[in-house]
Amino acid sequence: MAKEENYFVHESSYVDEGARIGPGTKVWHFTHIMPHAVIGSDCSLGQNVNVGSRAIIGNRVKVQNNVSIYDDVVLEDDVFCGPSCVFTNVINPRAFVERKAEYKKTVVKQGASIGANATIVCGVTLGEYCFIGAGAVVTKDVPAHALVYGNPAKANGWVCKCGEKLNSDLICPTCGTEYLQREGLLEGKEQH
Fold it and tell me: What is the pLDDT of residue 28?
């Protein structure tokens, strides 16, 4: 347990010396945070989460149960990781070959959501506010606001910052935000 904590750590969890956790963060049952891990403020880490020493978690991130955030995984602010989603950090693992010097960085940009049981192969970047469907296997970069699912994950539309799928006119049916598509990427036309 942390000293002089301004965050919550369940008594069944371990926070190793040197880990940094921001105020208002909640660490639930059977979670292990390794030394030097960085976790922002107002986060929620569910049951049975593991955070590696070189992992970085931004502010207001929600990590559901049974997720391991390994070394060299970066979750920016407002990211959602669904139950049992999987990150990797070695592209070609072998039990008998040491590959720690070959870890590949994975970056999940602000506001992205990863569905339950999705697998994120190391070395990719998930763009701002993208949405990874449950069970997807992501093997390459995902553009901002893209909706991807399947194995391997493929683009199947666009999502608004608020999380709703955009209609064919690239207008959010919920909040009314309009988007433009340029060179295969999405950008906001107006903000509400």
Answer: 98
In the chain, which ranges are continuous DSSP H helix?
Answer: none
Per-residue model confidence (pLDDT) at position 1: 44
**In this structure, what are the phi and psi dihedrals at residue 100, rounded to the nearest 5 degrees?**
-60, -30
Q: How far apart are CA 170 and CA 34, in angstroms?
A: 42
Residue with tokens 């978690």: 57
> In terms of Cα–Cα distance, which of 192, 120, 125 is closest to 149?
120
Q: What DSSP assignment string belongs to 99-133?
A: -GGG---EEE-TT-EE-TT-EE-TT-EEPTT-EEP
Is 114 in contact with 149 (CB distance < 8 Å)?
no
- Cis preceding linkage at 35, omega within 30: no
For residue 102, report the phi and psi dihedrals to the nearest 5 degrees: -110, 10
Q: Using an 8 Å Cβ cutoff, are 57 and 80 in contact?
A: no
Neighbours of 151 (CB within 10 A): 12
Beta bridge partners of 173: none
The residue ranges of the chain whose pLDDT is under 50 are 1-2, 190-192
Cβ(181)–Cβ(144) under 8 Å? no
